[in-house]
Amino acid sequence: MEQIEKLQSEALTKIADCQNNQDLNAVRVEYLGKKGPIQNLMKGMKDLTPDQRPAFGQKVNQLKSQIAKAIEEKREALAKKELQEKIEREKIDITLPGRKPVIANLHPLNLVCQELEDLFIGLGYQVIEGDDIVSDEYCFERANIPKDHPARDMQDSLYIDPNWLLRTHTTAIQMEVLEQSAPHLPIKVVCPGKVYRRDDDDATHSHQFMQMEGLVIGEHVTLSDLKGTLEFMARKLFGQDRQIRFRPSFFPFTEPSVEVDVSCHICNGKGCPTCKGTGWIEILGAGEVHPNVLKMAGYDPDKCSGFAFGVGIERVAMLKYGIDDIRHFYTNDMRFLEPFKRFD
Q1: Longest distance between any two alpha carbons in the chain, whole Å
Q2: Rounded distance, CA 129 to CA 30, Å?
């Protein structure tokens, strides 16, 4: 009987000290296994008298039941403890912000296009896009550039056949808009898109690039209206302190024609490497729409006038974001796009 009480005390102590199921299984095998002390007690019953055996057997069975019950209770306690620890490890703080999905970056050319489109839509312009393949008539002749005109030498074009080519400028879209809108006024459109020229690629030139041309036709539209529009655009793109200046130039579809410079946004007009020490940066060409262009589209140049301008998207993006090589826009290098990550 003393041996039974000793085994009971030892077993219950070991069960209470178990920290995991592996330890608990080891205690179960140690005391309840076929080679354990309880089984040995049962085998020793043959040495007892017939009167002693019933009481002794009852005590051994009670010991076996107590140990088995203690093991099961400990197993349930360990399971609850393990569940609680798992809950603590995996609990979610619902007050934390969720994980945002990865959103693709906007290309800097698209950023500039969107900014310009938003700007001109706010001024009442329409955004008109056209086909990349255009006819020779709308790309050149309607823009006051006949087949024998020397201005065609300024643009080494990519012809598909004698009558069709990849557009060399988005002026082709403007010529179609003029014809389709005649004789209704006013017309206020911007025409963004890719243009193509037979050119050797280097840091500042590409055989494919983007333009956005603007066209305004109405009554008494003057160069002062053009200057105000472009000054507003320059300040929105490069800062509120920007100034612009006109320099005489030549474009077949405008008369008079001007090159437009904006005061350098890096040095604020004092002179730096970006503006080559001049304090000014050339950004676009513009001018009053040529009377011949208006006549071919069905307008009377004595009753209406207008202005046009063409912005190089790559040129603006390079200046705005400090990009030193136009080829970066087309190399598909994800590292180049990283600074332009969206924050929606």
Answers
A1: 139
A2: 86
For the residues 321-340, what does the mean pLDDT come to?
Answer: 84
Which of helix, strand or coil describes residue 283? strand
Domain coordinates in residue numbering, the chain: 2-90, 108-340
Please name the amino acid found at residue 87: I
The CA-based dihedral angle spanning residues 185, 188, 194, 196, taken in that order and rounded to the nearest 10 degrees: 50
Cα 317 to chain centroid, rounded? 16
Tokens of 304: 């209406």
Closest residue by Cα to residue 64 from 41, 32, 36, 42: 32
* Integer CA distances (angstroms), 164 to 8, 158, 196, in order: 102, 9, 13
Cα angle for residues 301, 304, 309 (degrees, 5° grid): 90
Numbered residues of the known binding site for Mg(2+): 255
* DSSP 8-state secondary structure symbol assigned to residue 229: H
Structural contact between residues 310 and 230, judged by C-beta atoms closer than 8 angstroms:
no
Task: Give the DSSP letter of residue 264.
Answer: -
**What is the rounded CA–CA span in Å between residue 256 and residue 248?**
8
In the chain, % helix, strand, coil (3-state, to 5) comes to 45, 20, 35
Q: Does residue 75 sit in helix, strand or coil?
A: helix
Under the banding of pLDDT at 50, 70 and 90, the label for residue 338 is confident
Six-digit token pair at 28?
């179960």
Q: What is the pLDDT of residue 344?
A: 44
Measured distance CA(243)–CA(234) in Å, rounded: 8
**Which residue ranges make up the annotated binding site?**
255
Query: Each residue of 192-233: pLDDT tens digit?
Result: 999 998 888 888 788 899 999 999 999 999 999 999 999 999
Give the whole-number percent of the chain exceeding pLDDT 90: 38
CATH classification of 108-340 is 3.30.930.10, yes or no? yes
